[in-house]
Amino acid sequence: MFSSSVKRLFSNSLIFSIGTLGTKVIGFLMVPFYTYFLTQGQFGIVDLISTTVAMLTPVVTLSVFDAIFRFTMDKNFSNKILFSNGLVITVIGSIVTLLGGIIAQIVGYQYGFLLAILLILSVTSSFLQYFVRGIGYVKLFAVTGIVGTSLSAILNIMFIWYFKLGINGYLYGMAGAQLGTLILIVAVVKPWQYIDFGLVSKTNAMMLLRYSVPMIPNAFAWWFTNDANRFFILFFLGASANGIYAVANKIPSILTIFFTVFNQAWQISAVDEYESQSNSTFYSMIFNNLIHFSFLGMAGLLLILKPLMHVLVAPNFYSAWEFVPFLMLAMIFSNLSGFLGSTYIAAKMTTKLFSTTIYGMLTNIAFNAVLIPLIGLNGAGLGSALGFLAVMIIRLKQTKAFVTINVKWVPLTIHLVITALMYATLHLQNQMLMFTLLIMFFIITLALAGKDVVVFLKQRKAAK
Fold first, then answer.
1. CA 51, CA 34: separation in Å to the nearest integer?
2. CB 168 within 8 Å of CB 114
3. CA atoms within 13 A on the CB side of 371
4. Axis crossing angle, helix 239-248 with helix 40-60, rounded to the nearest 10
5. Is the pLDDT of residue 15 over 70?
6. How far apart are CA 181 and CA 144, in angstroms?
């Protein structure tokens, strides 16, 4: 029988999968719409704006929502203390953001005020979502994803297709979706019951900020490792190339769908299991299985890549398939690095996260600066892959101070070899050979994963 740890992780993953899969499927189905009604340049611009909002969200609120989630999981602190102090910090950050947006608009930045509104809605939504997840509303957290994405799709169709608003229509849709999510959470949770401004104090606020502030440079550096290549592409290749790159990135996001589902549940399990004496065994088993199934997912996507692109995008975006494989590899290493990052959160050692991400950021910047002028958009994907690989290796070494994760390097090498063969076969256009490789990959993955689980359960049973 599975241990309670595995059951809890599976149960939470199932709940989060409902929201995340619904969210990503809707977003994925909208790609043909965007590629038909937005030019390559327009799609490149909205992608940059979306990326900027994601980058600035933790900066605006000093990443306090991360602290809110972690401390609500502890059950040692009053929810009113956490919510009230976190709310004040979020409001102050929102006011500063609004003033900054107004100033940006006045000095001539076309999207300054709208960007500020998007940021305020994003930080408020993040704050509430992390809080409700921390206090146990996992089903509501899952549903908010579907509601937000559905609203975004409906509003984007209305603003872009019916009203012909182009870029502004896309941004209005983003804002409306965030607002809808906020209204849903407020209606269900009634967060005003957790507000007590008498509990707001410098001591309580600093308790949260001591945890969250070190997350800011890490989040910024993580964003730089993940998304800075868009600015290199814009500089070296132009907005249209960035539009192609944004579309190519949609395919690897399929891998992120499943990792996001898993990681939302894993963050809870990582905290629960951290105090366990057998946490090393549990963490190692989960990490190695994550490697197995990530590369299997990549292999499956390589098999259907070209037919999928024919269906998914307008003809002038079809060339994006050429840049997908390196982006998928980057996404895998990003997800593996993110998994290791959760161990720092469980150990409350957020200050150490930043140093690891910085190395990845510098690696990514260096390779982007060299490779994009040399090999074009594939240089961006390869640079990101090398950056996240650097983060993963450094974190594996650093986390040994509080949890040992034993990586099985031979299976990882086998996975890399098979995916490299499939990548080469993709250019040969031999579908039968690719299918044969995928079946072989599937059998190897199931055998390795099954062995890991059996070993873990035996060790857990012996420990009891």
1. 17
2. yes
3. 19
4. 70
5. no
6. 6
Q: Is 461 helix (H, G, I), strand (E, B) or coil?
A: helix
190 contacts: CB under 8 Å, gap ≥ 6: none
Q: How far apart are CA 256 and CA 254, in angstroms?
A: 5
pLDDT at 26 over 80: no
- Whether residue 214 contacts residue 351, with contact meaning beta carbons closer than 8 Å, is answered with yes
Residue with tokens 């994009």: 372
* CB contact set of 287 (below 8 Å; sequence gap of 6+): 336, 339, 340, 405, 407
pTM for the full predicted model: 0.68
Question: 392-421: buried (b, 16+ CB within 10 Å) or exposed (e) per residue?
Answer: bbbbbebbeebbebeebeebeebbeebbeb
Quick: pLDDT tens for 367-379: 988 999 999 889 9
Which residues fall within 8 angstroms of residue 442, CB to CB, at 6 or more apart? 296
**114-138 confidence digits (pLDDT tens):** 999 999 999 999 899 889 988 888 7
Name the CA radius of gyration of the chain, rounded: 22
Cα–Cα distance between 306 and 322 in angstroms, integer?
Answer: 9
Label residue 285 exposed, middle or buried (CB < 10 Å: 0-12, 13-18, 19+). buried
Residue 64 has which token pair?
């306090």
| Model confidence at 462: pLDDT above 70 | no
Average pLDDT on 199-228 reads: 81
Whole-angstrom CA distances from 109 to 41, 168, 372 are 18, 14, 28
The backbone region for 136, taken as left when phi is positive above 0, alpha when psi lies in -120 to 50, beta otherwise, is left
